[in-house]
Structures are given as structure tokens and as C-alpha cells.
Amino acid sequence: MSARGRSYRYVGPVELETAVRPGGGGCRISSAADFDSWIAERSAGELAEPFTFVVGMDGALRLAPRRSEHVVCAGGDMVLSAGEISFMREADRWAVGEVSNQSTGYCPDVTSWSAVARALDDVELGRPSGFTHEVVFRRCPGCQEHNIVREDDFVCVFCCSALPAAWNLDRTA
Where are the domains of the chain? Predict the structure, then answer.
């Protein structure tokens, strides 16, 4: 765990890591000016759907088109959170419309919200008080498959084993 919160390493399919390029990744947004420049370059079509985001280990928000892989957005690095985010105009400024921790590559816990909140506050974006859509991820201790827990049913969809109450996706954590 870092001073900024738990960190998450990529736990998704190995073949997706091959798309990571040195020096690549999502657009680093560390100030209101960075966000203003980035959003001004987006088309209406792009703004109509969510973007891929990660919060890097430096606490900065990184954004990429929705169909980008989180591991590519992060440049292959560990993150403090990952998911999908959309933006809307609110009075005379930009704000977050929706935000989730939906990333099957990093499978961040819902507790990663605090890192997202700090990153959004750093760029002076209006935001909700938490994820607007929370995704609960668990690794099955029986078959080792990754699961999305739905309706608080902590049972593996692959082998019917009980899933742990605590986040457990990173075997080295």
C-alpha cells in the first residue's frame, strides 16, 4: 500500500500487455489547464460515451478513449485506481457525469475511490461523492477465476465456491 492508498498491478490477460508501448499511455491530466486543453480536443461523438481512466502511482489522472485497455492507458504501470468516466457541462464548468471502477485488467476495489476523488479535485472537476457504479471484484480461491460479484452474491460463477469478503485479486498483495 502506498501513502496514497492501495496500489493495483495489472491482473488481466497477458496478451493485452503486448499493446503497451514505451512512453505511451493515456493523456496525463494533472491540472485544470491540462484538462481544459484535453477536453477542448474531444469531439461531440467522443464526449457522448465514457473514457478509460487510470489514476497513476503519482496520483495523476490519465485519460484515453473508451475502447482503450486500462493497462495501455497506464503504460503498463501499477495504478491507484482504474475504470470508466464521463464528463458533462455543469453551469460554466466541466464535471464528472458518471465514474466507475470497471476495469477487468486491474480489478480495483471500491475503496480506490479516494484516489479518484483526489485526482479529480487536483484538476478542479466537479464530482460525485463516490463511484456512480461500483464493481466488486474477487478471485475464487477454488478455481482462481476472476469474478464480478453481483447483488452481494459472493459465489463463484465458474465453480460455485464461496468468494471472500475482502478484495483478493492480486496474489502478491
Answer: 14-134, 137-173
CA–CA separation, 131 vs 74, rounded Å? Answer: 20
Distance CA 18, CA 22 (A): 11
> Per the structure block, which three cell numbers stand in for 120?
479529480
Distance CA 125, CA 1 (A): 26
Q: Judge contact between 54 and 106, C-beta under 8 A.
A: yes
Grid coordinates representing 168 are: 483478493
First to last CA, the chain: 8
pLDDT tens for each residue of 149-158: 999 999 999 9
Distance CA 147, CA 139 (A): 6
- State phi, psi for 28 to the nearest 5 degrees: -75, 125
pLDDT in tens, 52-67: 999 999 999 999 998 8
Three-state DSSP state, 80: strand
What would you report as the CA-atom Rg of the chain, rounded to the nearest whole angstrom?
16
Task: Tell me the whole-structure pTM to 2 decimals.
Answer: 0.93
